[in-house]
Design a protein that fits this description.
Elements lengths: L1 H11 L7 H10 L9 H9 L5 H11 L8 H15 L6 H5 L15 H14 L8 H6 L3 E5 L12 E6 L4 E6 H14 L18 H19 L8 H8 L5 H8 L6 H4 L14 H51 L7 H4 L4 H75 L3 H35 L2 H32 L17
């Protein structure tokens, strides 16, 4: 089937050249391992075009192969026909044939977030033991921004408020730190088998601007990890937090979700979790935990090195400010009033004029170092912190599983003697059911950890993003700084009062 499909695709792709948007759509709607387009996804894609049903039926008839699947080229044809129809042209295969050698038009399909989410869900249903997501797909689920609300509120104890913006929910709400705490507690209750990121600490008194800024960044990472989690991102608790515009959020949220079932009692996969857990899962988990410790330590070292790079650039900026300030001070010092000391040499007066001109140019170098430090902090350090948050959440998850296993062992050992002594069939049956339930919960816990482990591996692609950012920042930043230094050269060469005298050179190496 796969060989014949490839031949068909090769024959069909003689029309037009394929724009990147078409490939992006294929990656979204191809939610399986056979490289064929899921028909449910394809139908939902057609509906997003907002074309009349009659037009969509015509498009379907032209691309439906009657083979139970849709090929890549079939999808590309459909996208081209949708674009032509949106331009007011009648649906016809001749339109595509006339585009030989030209780039096919791009259809308007609006926001694709819901299609991405559906694709992830279908992929998980078709192969529940494989996460099958890329880092790009995870990031596309949502982007959440957090900014500080300018004014502090509260009559006596002033508190900080955050403006939270969710791209997926198209929402803007204001939240306090305690609202984040309530969200964290509720999610831990419902998803004890998932990675729940840690919250940054709360500092009651004496929180300076640096602490507040660091906490803002940490809260932003916290929400983005939740908003991009394949399971938690679809939960009503998170949706409430990101969209509820009323007051007293933490209490409203706790009241609204009081008594909510945990994932084990509300997830259909929990019933068949035994089939989703490989036999050697416990041993594999022990090996992976050791690997994650090494990964965490390695990324921690990278983060600390990146922080030192940021600090060095900030120190360079501070030194440039000091250097320029001293030049300015020298330039404003008293002029030579007699030639007793100078012997008629006019060097100092020339230097003073030049130093005044150099001061703003050196200030530009300082600003360039400051900007480079800020970009490195955002694009390198914070991305490394994001991954460290992921691995820390994974460690917490594994610790919860160990705690769960310890409790189960304790319960099991405490019931051995009473079970042997009891002959009551009702008691025996209840104990057996409890044991079976605990075994199912254990299997679901292991299955969840298996999927979370794959999610950690997906997040490892952050390292590529970090390296790309570091290379780009260093290349552009150093080039900019070098250009600024070079721009001073003509001015420095004019500082000598007499023409024909060369610039003095260092005698240290002589």
């Amino acid at each position: 089937m796969q060989e014949s499909l490839c031949k068909t695709m090769a024959a069909d792709l003689t029309f037009g050249s394929v724009p990147p948007f078409y490939r992006e759509m294929y990656d979204i709607v191809c939610a399986n391992q056979e490289n064929v387009v899921d028909q449910d996804m394809f139908i939902k894609l057609l509906v997003k075009s907002s074309l009349p049903k009659a037009t969509l039926s015509q498009i379907w008839d032209l691309v439906d192969t009657r083979q139970g699947y849709l090929s890549r080229s079939g999808l590309y044809k459909a996208l081209a026909l949708v674009a032509f129809a949106q331009q007011g042209k009648p649906v016809s295969e001749k339109l595509i044939q006339n585009f030989t050698g030209e780039e096919l038009p791009k259809p308007s399909l609006g926001d694709l977030t819901d299609l991405r989410i559906l694709s992830i869900r279908l992929r998980r249903e078709k192969n529940p033991m494989r996460l099958g997501l890329t880092y790009h797909e995870i990031c596309a689920l949502d982007t959440i921004q957090i900014s500080l609300v300018p004014e502090k509120k509260g009559l006596f104890l002033k508190h900080v408020e955050y403006e939270v913006t969710s791209q997926r929910n198209k929402s803007i709400v204001q939240r306090r730190y305690n609202d984040f705490v309530a969200l964290h507690e509720l999610l831990l209750q419902k998803f004890p088998n998932r990675m729940i990121p840690q919250l940054p600490p709360k500092k009651v008194m004496g929180a300076d601007n640096q602490f507040i800024e660091e906490r803002r960044k940490a809260l932003k990472r916290f929400l983005n990890l939740l908003g991009r989690h394949p399971v938690i991102s679809e939960d009503k608790i998170l949706h409430f937090f990101l969209t509820f515009a009323g007051t007293d959020v933490q209490h409203k949220m706790k009241d609204h979700f009081r008594g909510v079932l945990d994932e084990f009692n509300s997830n259909e996969q929990a019933k068949e979790a035994e089939e989703l857990v490989p036999i050697d899962s416990a041993n594999q988990l022990a090996v992976v935990r050791e690997q994650m410790k090494q990964v965490f330590n390695g990324f921690l070292q990278l983060k600390e090195a990146a922080e030192r790079m940021v600090e060095r650039n900030r120190q360079e900026a501070a030194d440039m400010v000091l250097f320029g300030k001293e030049l300015c001070t020298l330039a404003n010092s008293a002029s030579t009033e007699s030639d007793w000391g100078s012997g008629g040499n006019e060097t100092w007066d020339y230097l003073k004029k030049g130093m005044k001109s150099l001061h703003p140019m050196i200030s530009n170098v300082s600003s360039a170092y400051t900007e480079l430090a800020s970009l490195e902090e955002d694009d390198v350090v914070d991305e490394l912190n994001l991954f460290l948050d992921v691995v820390s959440a994974y460690k917490d998850l594994c610790d919860r599983y160990e705690h769960f296993c310890a409790i189960m062992r304790q319960k099991s050992s405490s019931k051995i003697v009473p079970r042997r002594a009891s002959t009551n069939p009702i008691v025996i049956d209840a104990e057996n059911q409890a044991m079976q339930q605990n075994e199912k919960r254990n299997n679901f816990f292991l299955h969840s950890i298996h999927m979370e482990t794959q999610l950690v591996h997906t997040y490892m692609q952050i390292l590529v993003k970090v390296l790309q950012s570091l290379i780009n920042l260093q290349t552009k930043g150093m080039l900019n700084i070098s250009t600024l230094w070079q721009s001073m050269q003509p001015l420095v060469e004019t500082l000598m009062p007499v023409t024909g005298i060369t610039t003095p050179t260092s005698t240290i190496s002589r």
